[in-house]
From TrEMBL:
Localization, UniProt: Cell membrane
GO molecular function: ATP binding
Family named by the database record: Belongs to the ABC transporter superfamily.
Superkingdom of the source species: Bacteria
Primary subcellular site in the record, as a coarse category: membrane
Organism: Paenibacillus pabuli
Keyword Plastid: no
Official protein name in the record: Energy-coupling factor transport system ATP-binding protein
Length: 628
């Protein structure tokens, strides 16, 4: 049984994987502590998710466990940290790393060897263990990578690289495995693969798993417990079903419950008048957190719904295609020109091919003869599996990469005839890895850099507005490299917004973002429509696609696999499967319940649900004149 503040009451020191008491830690140059009296206990063999808004101290907390704080990241530190029943004080990072594996947000930086097997063997070899090869091969087998042990790192997909970083962390057979943002840069299918691997490590190998996560759908499906942090403190540690039902707590801190949970809450507010977490607790009602739970929940609370599909589900998403609305976004959000208006091309690809040269001078083609045009006013989402070519296509538009064959023209200029400086005044490219964009020693200087170099009038006022818009004013004197992953993402978005480009290119803009910042991003994109002629986003965030995009381009193996509205794309099951994509949770629920449309949002789902219920009730009353 979990108590609210920290830990299961039955946990004894010998059963504890992690125990911290009243830890306070302040980074150099910061006046406010990032950990402010944090206390937490996690039992051995647990599978725990740590959640909270950007900058609440999640990553800092986890760096206590392997000694990186206070030994590597120095600062003002006090408190007590115990790992596997022993004090962490006096133990080196190398010693603690034998027991605690860590996979960081930017897992690419952990891969330092040329081949898969070399990488898996690297840690035990450096510790001088004679059976290093056996340990490496065992770790690869645990992660399902044993069939590709001779592959070069650069040949791997993003999901395979992430699994390899896991294998490298597992090669020393640690008792505890920490993974920071497991799915932030992965397509939906690889994201699920990562969590299935973590679940297997927990259930079959008895590893204690700790994840830092913003995606509550994965927490609901795989984790046992959830820890909520705010302002450097642990607010509670609860079983997942209870924690994800703390709707008020999550909403106050900008954390999205699972989509099916939000749909159930919205339906309850409309039909039962349940408005607060206190009312929920007093009623004893619990909202569903997974699709399976949601099917049962809505059948129980809305019995007038036609739930025949619960046992007789459609065999394919494509069966619903003719009933799916022509557009999955609000009409006021759509900016595609009507058929009567001429479409102005902003970007044109003509037989475009891009190849990278790898080891042994072997060329690897990542863009394979693409022919597409992007037009003024479109909101374009590039989607596809890891390695499909999304980032490469963005770099071609920005002029960072030049095609070996064919051409790319941007705003009437052919990129291989224009300099990067010329394009930079018209095109803003926001990198996938935030740290690649930082060149100054403060957030304010980063945002102001482009404007100052271009001698933009009223640059200071523009910078101040952007800093305020992205909640960066309190951080403006901090070095962006020392901020949390989510805070770094906000800085990169602020840099792009300050440039006011004609073409905005964003690579995974919602990665590592909490709910509040994610909603701000959509608000800023709306603002950008006033002066940005076209916006292109490469993303794995299917909720963002359905909420924002007017056009979706699906890439697979460097080619355009599909090009259409979000409705067209998500109605094609075979397309989703072969492109490494998946329906959002609420669309999956719509499908399984047999609703006539695939609902793109929770609001649309509740509308469809209640409309179906009311329609059936009306038909029932019509057949019973005595009720009239």
């Amino acid at each position: 049984m979990h108590n609210e503040m920290s830990t299961p009451s039955s946990v004894t020191p010998s059963d504890s994987a992690i125990s911290i008491q009243n830890v306070i830690f302040t980074y150099p140059g910061s006046e406010e502590p990032v950990l402010n009296g944090a206390s937490l206990e996690l039992p051995r063999g647990s599978f725990t998710a740590i959640i909270g808004g950007n900058g609440c101290g999640k990553s800092t907390l986890c760096k206590l466990f392997n000694g990186l704080i206070p030994q590597f990241y120095t600062g003002d530190f006090s408190g007590e940290v115990n790992v596997l029943g022993m004090p962490a004080e006096g133990r080196s990072v190398a010693d603690l790393s034998r027991k605690i594996g860590y996979v960081y947000q930017d897992f690419d930086n952990q891969l330092v060897r040329p081949t898969v097997l070399d990488e898996a063997c690297f840690a035990p070899l450096n510790y001088g263990l004679p059976n290093y090869r056996e340990l490496g091969e065992r770790a690869l087998a645990m992660c399902g990578l044993d069939a590709i042990h001779n592959r070069y790192i650069w040949e791997l997909s993003g999901g395979q690289k992430h699994l390899l970083a896991l294998a490298g962390a597992l090669s020393l057979d640690p008792d505890i495995l920490i993974v920071d943002e497991p799915v932030s840069q992965l397509d939906p299918q690889h994201a699920r693969l990562i969590y299935e691997c973590l679940s297997k490590l927990n259930t079959e190998y008895g590893k204690t798993i700790i994840v830092i996560e913003h995606h509550t759908e994965f927490i609901a499906n795989f984790c046992a417990d959830v820890v909520l942090m705010d302002k450097g403190r642990v607010l509670w540690n609860l079983p997942v079903k209870e924690g994800l039902n703390r709707i008020t707590d999550l909403g106050r801190l900008g954390i999205q419950p699972p989509e099916v949970t939000r749909a159930a809450v919205q339906a309850a507010e409309l039909t039962q008048g349940i408005k607060t977490n206190a009312a929920l607790s007093s009623s004893g009602q619990r909202f569903p957190i997974t699709v399976e739970e949601a099917k049962v929940y809505f059948a129980e609370y809305y019995p007038s719904m036609p739930f025949g599909s619960l046992h007789n589900e459609p065999s394919s998403y494509s069966n619903l295609a003719h009933d799916v609305p022509n557009q999955m976004v609000n009409s006021e959000r759509l900016t595609i020109a009507s058929a009567a208006e001429p479409l102005i091309p902003i970007v044109q690809f003509h037989q475009t091919r891009l190849r990278y040269r790898g080891l042994g001078k072997k060329e690897h083609e990542v863009i394979c003869g693409v022919n597409i045009s992007l037009h003024e006013g479109e909101r374009i989402a590039l989607i596809g599996n890891n390695g499909a070519g999304k980032s490469s296509l963005l770099k071609l538009m920005a002029g960072i990469s030049l095609p070996q064959e064919g051409s790319v023209s941007v705003l009437g200029e052919v990129t291989h005839r224009s300099s990067l400086e010329q394009l930079a005044g018209k095109v803003a490219y926001i990198f996938q890895n935030s740290s690649e964009m930082f060149i100054e020693d403060s957030v304010r200087k980063e945002v102001a850099y482009f404007l100052k170099n271009r001698r933009t009038p009223d640059a200071d006022l523009q910078v101040a507005h952007v800093l305020e818009r992205f909640r960066l004013t309190p951080l403006q004197e901090r070095d962006a490299r020392l901020l949390s992953g989510g805070q770094q993402r906000r800085v990169t978005l602020a840099i792009g917004a300050a440039m006011k480009p004609s073409l905005m290119l964003l690579d995974e803009p919602t990665a590592n973002l909490d709910l509040a910042t994610r909603e701000e991003l959509i608000g800023v994109l709306d603002e950008l429509d006033q002066h940005v002629r076209t916006t292109v986003i490469a993303t794995h965030d299917m909720q963002l696609v359905t909420q924002w995009a007017s056009r979706v381009i699906v890439l697979h193996q460097g080619q355009v696999e599909a090009d259409g509205t979000p409705a067209d794309v998500f109605a094609d099951e075979s397309l989703l499967r072969r492109s490494g994509l998946a329906l959002t949770q609420i669309m999956e629920l719509s499908h399984r319940m047999g609703l006539p449309t695939l609902s793109p949002t929770t609001e649309a789902f509740v509308d469809n649900l209640l409309n179906q219920s009311l329609t059936k009730e009306a038909m029932h009353h019509a057949a019973c004149p005595q009720l009239v």
